[in-house]
C-alpha cells in the first residue's frame, strides 16, 4: 500500500495518555519484549525508519530482559485472568503510542479491516469522524448522508458521554469501540456544542457512500462535492470534469466541507484537474528537508474555469492539500471557515496476520511552502454558518460561492 494522507480520524489521535496511566507504561515495556523477538526473527520490517536520520542512534535490536521481568511479575501477581491476545495487542499499541505522534497508530486485524473498508467508502456505525483536541473527543466531521449527519451531529461537537459513559480520559480507540456496533442497534451520545449540551440517539448502519457527488447549479455552475478522498475519487472527478467541460459550465464549486481526507494520490489527481503540467500540488519534507514534490502530470481539464473551494473545520488533510494547491497556483479561491490543520503524511505497513501500522513519515507543505499543521488553512473569503442556518437548510456558504461566481 502506498503513501496515504490519513482519512480515518476515528483512530488517529493520542492513545493511552491519561486513561491507562501506569498500565500504559507496562504495555509499552512488555511490547518491547515481544517486538524484539519479532524483529529478531524477521517477522517485522520497518523499512522507512532505516532512512530516518533522527533515529539513526537507536540500536538495531532491543534489550528486552527487563521487559520480561515486568511480564513475569504481571503473570505471577495479577489478581485476575490475563488474556494473551489482549496482552499482545496492548504491547503493540503501547510501543506505537510511545512515539508520541497522534497519527502514528497500530491497528489489530479487526480495526485494520474496518479502517480499509472506511477508506473504500464502507462504514458500519454512525459515520462520524472523531479526533482529539486537548484531551477531548471531538467530531471532525459527520459524513454526508450518514446517521450522524441526519441526526444533527456537527463538526467541532465535543462528545462528553457515550451511552452514559463519560469520555473523560478516554482514547479515540475506546470511544470508537463504544460507538461502533451492529447495524440496527442504537448508541446514545451527549455532546457539548459551545455552551449547549445536546443528547442524541443514533441508529447504527452499514454505510456505503460514493466519494463524489456532482450536479449543475443554476447559472450553469458545476458543483462537485467530495466527501472523502477514496479509491473511486480520481475516476469520478475525472468524469465530472469531462462532463462539465462538454457542458461548457462557466464556473465550478468544489465542496470539501467536512471532508476529513484520504489518499494522497487522489488529492494529487483532483488538484491536477485545475493545473498545468508541472505545476506543484504539494511538497513533502522529512527532517525539514524536501524529499518529494508532487506535480500535475499533465494539463488538467478545468484550467481557467473560475472555481471556488468550500472549506470548514471538518476539511482536513487531503482536503487541505487540494485547497492549498489550487489557491497557491491561483486556480481557485477558498470560501467558508478555517480548515482543521493536519499537515502530516502517513505510510502503511501491512502484516501477514492482518494487522496494520500507520506511521508518520513526513510533513507536507503547500506549493508556496506554507504549513497548515495544527493551524489550519484560512479561507480567502471567510463566511461562517450558524447552527440555526444549518437546521433551517440555509447553506449560506454555498450561496456565497454562487453569488461570487455569478458576479464574475
Model description:
The chain has 408 residues and is α+β, with helices and mostly antiparallel strands. Among the domains are: 86 residues, PDZ domain (Pdz3 Domain); 197 residues, 2-enoyl-CoA Hydratase, Chain A, domain 1, CATH 3.90.226.10. The protein is built from eleven helices and 20 strands. The strands form four sheets. Strands 1, 2, 14, 15, 18 and 19 form a six-stranded antiparallel sheet that branches. A hairpin with a 2-residue loop joins strand 4 and strand 5. Helix 8 runs parallel beside helix 9. It is globular. The chain starts with a strand and ends with a helix.
CATH topology of the domain at 210-406: 2-enoyl-CoA Hydratase, Chain A, domain 1
Strand content: 25-35%
Beta-strand segment tally: 20
Q: Roughly how much helix do the residues carry, as a percent range?
A: 25-40%
Q: What is the CA-atom radius of gyration, in angstroms?
A: 22 Å
How does CATH name the architecture of the domain at 210-406?
Alpha-Beta Complex
Q: State the end-to-end CA separation.
A: 43 Å
CATH class of the domain at 210-406 equals Alpha Beta
Mean pLDDT: 84
Residue stretches low in confidence (pLDDT < 50, at least 5 long) are 1-50
What would you call the shape?
globular
Tell me the major beta sheet. Answer: 6 strands, antiparallel
Strand-pairing-aware structural class: alpha+beta
Give the full name of the CATH homologous superfamily of the domain at 210-406. 2-enoyl-CoA Hydratase, Chain A, domain 1
Determine the number of helices (DSSP H or I, runs of at least 4 residues): 11
Amino acid at each position: 500500500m502506498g503513501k496515504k494522507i490519513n482519512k480515518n480520524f476515528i483512530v488517529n489521535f493520542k492513545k493511552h495518555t491519561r486513561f491507562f496511566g501506569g498500565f500504559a507504561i507496562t504495555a509499552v515495556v512488555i511490547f518491547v519484549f515481544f517486538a524484539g523477538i519479532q524483529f529478531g526473527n524477521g517477522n517485522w520490517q520497518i523499512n522507512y525508519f532505516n532512512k530516518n536520520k533522527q533515529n539513526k542512534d537507536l540500536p538495531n535490536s532491543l534489550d528486552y530482559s527487563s521487559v520480561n521481568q515486568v511480564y513475569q511479575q504481571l503473570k505471577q501477581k495479577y489478581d485476575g485472568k490475563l488474556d494473551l491476545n489482549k496482552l499482545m495487542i496492548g504491547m503493540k499499541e503501547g510501543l506505537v503510542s510511545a512515539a508520541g505522534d497522534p497519527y502514528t497508530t497500530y491497528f489489530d486485524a479487526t480495526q485494520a479491516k474496518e479502517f480499509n473498508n472506511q477508506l473504500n467508502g464502507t462504514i458500519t456505525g454512525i459515520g462520524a469522524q472523531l479526533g482529539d483536541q486537548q484531551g477531548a473527543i471531538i467530531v471532525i466531521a459527520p459524513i454526508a448522508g450518514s446517521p450522524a449527519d441526519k441526526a444533527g451531529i456537527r463538526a467541532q461537537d465535543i462528545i462528553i458521554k457515550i451511552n452514559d459513559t463519560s469520555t473523560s480520559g478516554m482514547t479515540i480507540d475506546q470511544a470508537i469501540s463504544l460507538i461502533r456496533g451492529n447495524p440496527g442497534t442504537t448508541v446514545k451520545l451527549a455532546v457539548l456544542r459551545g455552551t449547549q449540551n445536546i443528547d442524541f440517539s443514533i441508529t447504527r448502519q452499514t454505510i456505503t457512500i460514493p466519494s463524489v457527488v456532482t450536479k449543475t447549479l443554476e447559472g450553469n455552475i458545476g458543483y462537485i462535492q467530495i466527501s472523502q478522498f477514496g479509491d473511486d475519487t480520481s475516476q469520478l472527478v475525472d468524469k465530472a470534469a469531462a462532463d462539465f467541460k462538454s457542458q461548457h459550465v462557466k464556473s465550478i464549486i468544489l465542496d470539501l466541507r467536512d471532508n476529513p481526507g484520504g489518499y494522497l494520490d487522489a488529492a494529487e489527481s483532483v488538484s491536477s484537474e485545475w493545473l498545468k503540467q508541472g505545476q506543484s500540488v504539494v511538497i513533502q519534507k522529512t527532517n525539514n528537508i524536501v524529499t518529494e514534490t508532487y506535480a500535475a502530470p499533465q494539463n488538467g481539464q478545468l484550467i481557467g474555469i473560475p472555481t471556488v473551494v468550500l472549506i470548514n473545520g471538518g476539511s482536513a488533510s487531503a482536503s487541505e492539500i487540494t485547497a492549498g494547491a489550487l489557491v497557491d497556483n491561483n486556480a481557485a479561491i477558498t470560501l467558508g471557515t478555517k480548515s482543521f490543520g493536519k499537515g502530516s503524511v502517513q505510510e502503511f505497513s501491512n502484516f501477514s496476520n492482518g494487522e496494520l501500522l500507520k506511521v508518520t513519515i513526513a510533513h507536507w507543505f503547500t506549493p508556496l511552502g506554507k504549513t497548515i499543521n495544527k493551524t489550519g488553512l484560512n479561507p480567502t473569503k471567510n463566511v461562517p454558518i450558524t447552527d440555526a442556518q444549518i437546521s433551517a437548510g440555509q447553506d449560506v456558504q454555498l450561496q456565497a460561492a454562487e453569488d461570487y461566481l455569478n458576479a464574475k
